[in-house]
Design brief:
By secondary structure, this protein is mostly helical. It is built from 6 helices and 4 strands; from the N terminus they run H-E-E-H-H-H-H-E-E-H. The relative contact order is 0.11. The structure holds zinc ion.
Length: 165
């Protein structure tokens, strides 16, 4: 299992991985299966490198100010998934997710002094988030789920207003 696949597996179990210096912080609603934990341990350097590299920056992301360009990128992505054997629904969903990640990556959030969610100073629980092209910012662990969900929601709304189905 390579690093990307491992991270997907953790997500499939409802968990997430965050980089904490040179350590990986695993959060999961229930303990992860033993084999997955062992695999994570065995491939720790690889996973760290993968997390450090952040989401793959797509060199051909669309011109976001041009809805036509954004739409054609969406259809191109969905087309790739369709030809890889996905159903139309699945292909649309995957293309949307991909475009969403791309959008968030090219639209970093404003960097604030404290936690971007509650505004309070950072503490030991603060976790790094790769803020697209602007590098890492930190968010309290307890603020993270709501903050990230809000961020994703706003990005989805923006894509929808650009005419992405
Ligand atoms: Zn906070």
């Amino acid at each position: 299992m390579d690093a990307a696949r491992l991270i997907d597996e953790v997500k499939r179990h409802g968990g997430s991985l965050q980089l904490n210096g040179d350590k990986i912080r695993v959060s999961a609603p229930e303990p992860l299966p033993d084999n997955l934990r062992q695999e994570l341990k065995a491939r720790k350097p690889e996973v760290i490198n993968f997390l450090k590299a952040g989401p793959r920056v797509n060199p051909c992301h669309p011109d976001w100010s041009d809805p036509e360009d954004t739409r054609s990128r969406f259809f191109e992505l969905a087309g790739n998934h369709l030809s890889a054997g996905k159903t139309q629904d699945e292909a649309d969903k995957l293309a949307f997710e991909c475009l969403l990640a791309d959008w968030m990556n090219s639209h970093p959030v404003e960097v604030t002094e404290g936690c971007p969610h509650c505004g309070e100073p950072h503490d030991a629980s603060s976790m790094p988030y790769l803020n697209g092209e602007a590098g890492h910012i930190k968010i309290h662990e307890q603020c993270w789920p709501e903050w990230y969900a809000g961020l994703k929601k706003r990005a989805s709304v923006t894509l929808t207003t650009l005419g992405i189905p």
